[in-house]
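I have been asked to look over a protein record a colleague put together. What it holds is a sequence and that sequence's fold in token form. Please read both lines and tell me whether the tokens look consistent with the sequence. I do not need a full report, just your reasoning and any doubts. This is what I was given:
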Amino acid sequence: MVDRWRLGTVAGLCVLLSACDVASGSKGSGDDTQGLKVPRAQASANGGAEDIASAALRTRDAAGFTVTAQKGADEAGHRDVRLTKDACGPVAYVLSAEAAGRPVSVVVREVSDEHAVVTVVLAEYGGGAAQAALDALATALDECAGGFTATVDGEARAFSRLVPELAPEGADQAMAWGAVVERDGVKAPVKAVVFRKGATVGYLTAVPKGSAPKDFSVPDAVVDAQLAKLS
């Protein structure tokens, strides 16, 4: 069952995903075996922080898109995400513009055009933690496909209609899916693409903007550009 997720290749974003201030939330608390409730590691001056920063997208990398990094965005991972069903933690974190598991360094970029706003989270992991994070995410997608609820920085959200989509090629692991996020009675679609190249994982979440079609997706140009920078 897990394989269906692996092989299935700016107002709305701020309101529903709170991704526009992704680095400004409070740190999580608690603990579990997957590290899904503990504070995330900040990007640091050691390890692979410099390498992962050089792999982050710039405007020149994706024609037709604007790439921005908000103040503090390279210290992502501070959202307090709490769930009624812990098994859904990896999905909740990704759909809240967070990395799953415990990366050792993280960079975040916001990529937008007239149709979509995409939050790109690049996370570097130690040892085999990158593959473990994606395996846990695939399992969570399978177990939580019917939907779940969570609070993100104290605000309730309902995640539903998790449907696998076509995943990109050219990565060691990849998965993609669509979902609906509801907050305060407002619903909006969100799309996600996650891929791993070695010890680096790219988490891309997109919401529609302006005249975006109802069947919008994470733009292929953004996915391809990020994969190319990790090659």
Remarks:
- The longest helix spans residues 129-143.
